């Protein structure tokens, strides 16, 4: 059972989103977006030519006019598919979701916030019930912070998919997975004589900084990020199997 759970966990952690999908490859979709932008958007594509003056939740979380055109044209294509009895396609690596109060993926936002709430509750319980002088206290204290940060960025990313929010979501998710492996190994090294645990910590910190720097400074490499998650997942599986 543990093996099946761990393998399933690895695959769940290594989901990959594509840059382009079937829906946004259709000429009718591209033509719809271009026409919408010409009719409703200013030259920069950010602002509407004639704002309606009403409060707009979408604008509150940085929905540009061009983004709104993509959203409206996406649903025009989906409606056309449904009339023909075809299943809806993906657009820009995502399935169509109905926007609610400006939130791009409201269900995912809710689940991320629920995960965040549970982590905060358990973190408070940890602080109340575990002695600060316990051997692994600092390790799990920081782990709670890493997990809370991860779910914060997950909620932000699913609210609005932008290059910055996507980067922070991927980095935070990898950080949580990588720190899980770090915590598992530190359970063994924490009582080891000499500076072994300190050296291991420095190696892990250096690796994460290098990983983040590569994704930040270069074009985001989805394949590399997925491979790194798989590698960490395999190491976690081996560590659990040994225990």
Automatic annotation (TrEMBL):
One Pfam family of this chain: Per1
Output the GO biological process annotations, alphabetical, semicolon-separated. GPI anchor biosynthetic process
The Gene Ontology terms for molecular function here are: hydrolase activity, acting on ester bonds
Q: Which PANTHER family match?
A: PER1-RELATED, POST-GPI ATTACHMENT TO PROTEINS FACTOR 3
The transmembrane segments are 97-118, 139-158, 170-189, 196-216
Signal peptide range in chain numbering: 1-20
Q: What is this protein called?
A: Post-GPI attachment to proteins factor 3
State whether keyword Protease applies. no
Q: Where in the cell is it found?
A: Endomembrane system; Golgi apparatus membrane
GO terms under cellular component = endoplasmic reticulum membrane; Golgi membrane
Q: Which InterPro entries match?
A: Per1-like (IPR007217)
Tell me its family. Answer: Belongs to the PGAP3 family.
Q: Specify the protein's topology with respect to the membrane.
A: Multi-pass membrane protein
**Would I find Nucleotide-binding among this entry's keywords?**
no
Keyword terms: Golgi apparatus, GPI-anchor biosynthesis, Membrane, Signal, Transmembrane, Transmembrane helix
What this chain does, per the record?
Answer: Involved in the lipid remodeling steps of GPI-anchor maturation.
User: Which superkingdom heads the taxonomic lineage of this protein's source?
Assistant: Eukaryota
């Amino acid at each position: 059972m543990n093996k099946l759970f761990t393998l399933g966990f690895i695959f769940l952690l290594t989901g990959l989103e594509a840059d382009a999908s079937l829906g946004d490859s259709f000429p009718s979709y591209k033509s719809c977006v271009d026409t919408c932008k010409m009719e409703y958007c200013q030259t920069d594509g950010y602002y509407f030519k004639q704002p309606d003056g009403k409060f707009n939740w979408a604008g509150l979380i940085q929905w540009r006019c061009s983004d709104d055109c993509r959203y409206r044209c996406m649903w025009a294509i989906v409606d056309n598919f449904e009339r023909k009895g075809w299943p809806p396609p993906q657009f820009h690596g995502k399935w169509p979701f109905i926007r609610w109060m400006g939130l791009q993926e409201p269900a995912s936002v809710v689940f991320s916030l629920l995960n965040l709430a549970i982590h905060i509750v358990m973190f408070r319980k940890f602080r109340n019930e575990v002695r600060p002088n316990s051997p692994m206290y600092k390790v799990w204290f920081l782990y709670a912070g890493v997990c809370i940060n991860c779910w914060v960025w997950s909620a932000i990313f699913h609210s609005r998919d932008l290059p910055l929010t996507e980067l922070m979501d991927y980095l935070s998710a990898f950080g949580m997975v990588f720190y899980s492996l770090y915590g598992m190994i530190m359970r063994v090294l924490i009582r080891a004589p000499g500076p072994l645990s300190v050296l291991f910590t420095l190696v892990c910190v250096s690796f994460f900084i290098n990983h983040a720097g590569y994704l930040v400074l270069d074009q985001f490499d989805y394949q590399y990020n997925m491979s790194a998650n798989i590698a960490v997942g395999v190491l976690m599986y081996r560590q659990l199997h040994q225990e």
